[in-house]
Write a structure and sequence with these properties.
The chain has seven helices and ten strands. The protein has 211 residues and is of the alpha/beta class. The protein has a single domain, classed as Alpha-Beta Complex (Spore Coat Polysaccharide Biosynthesis Protein SpsA, Chain A), CATH 3.90.550.10. It has an eight-stranded mixed beta sheet, with helices on both faces. The chain has a two-stranded antiparallel ribbon with strand order 3-4. InterPro entries: MobA-like_NTP_Trfase (IPR025877), Nucleotide-diphossugar_trans (IPR029044).
Length: 211
């Protein structure tokens, strides 16, 4: 599956968005990307969030169950690519996503890395990552939750070579840990601690959304 540009959108771009959705959801036993919250699948919600942000282009990296998941988003103005080596882990998919997005837009200032299983990510958060980046000049702007830094996170173009070296299950957090604190900024995201890996997480998320 090659990159599929689903929109003729012509827009100046400085910060791209990579949504990682390639995993097999082995702990859940079914594709988490297709779980529904308020009648919308997680993958649809993630892409919609990206499209409501300042990020452009928006690229989705699929892997396991790609054809099935793609049906949920193929009509949206995003780029979609399948990582043929998705089984090698999140780091490999991130590396593949970076290469893919730079082939679309080679002159990006930065990229935001986002997962599809953090249901409380919204456009406001993504935009705050971008605003903080341009305000501070930090190499990394990460989401902060439970006293940890994680994704969604923005990475300056000077870190692209480091992202391109990722292997296996080593993801964006490994890069964040390697950067001096003086070159990192953070944006509070209390609900970032909630991601959906099992049905307990899913039921908890449903309860929070329906409060």
């Amino acid at each position: 599956m090659s990159i599929v540009p689903n929109s003729g959108k012509n827009k100046e771009s400085t910060v791209g968005l990579i949504i990682l959705a390639a995993g097999a959801s082995s702990r859940l036993g079914e594709p988490k990307q297709l779980l529904k919250l308020n009648d919308q699948t997680l993958i649809f919600r993630a892409v919609r969030t990206g499209l409501r942000s300042l990020c452009f282009p928006v690229l989705v990296i699929l892997g396991a169950n790609a054809e099935l998941i793609m049906r949920e988003i193929e009509d949206l103005p995003v780029y979609i690519n399948k990582n043929p080596n998705w089984k090698k882990g999140m780091g490999n998919s991130l590396k593949y996503g970076l290469d893919s997005i730079l082939r679309i837009y080679p002159h990006l200032d930065a990229v935001v890395v986002m997962l599809c299983d953090q249901p409380f990510v919204d456009g406001v958060l993504l935009n705050e990552l971008i605003r903080t980046y341009y305000k501070t000049g930090s190499l990394v702007v990460a989401s902060e939750y439970e006293h940890h830094l994680g994704v969604p996170a923005l990475f300056d173009k000077t870190l692209f070579p480091e992202l391109a070296k990722l292997k296996g299950d080593k993801g964006a957090r490994n890069i964040i840990k390697s950067i001096p604190h003086t070159k990192i900024s953070s944006v509070p995201f209390a609900l970032g601690k909630i991601d959906i890996d099992c049905y307990e997480d899913y039921f908890l998320t449903q309860q929070l959304i329906n409060k």
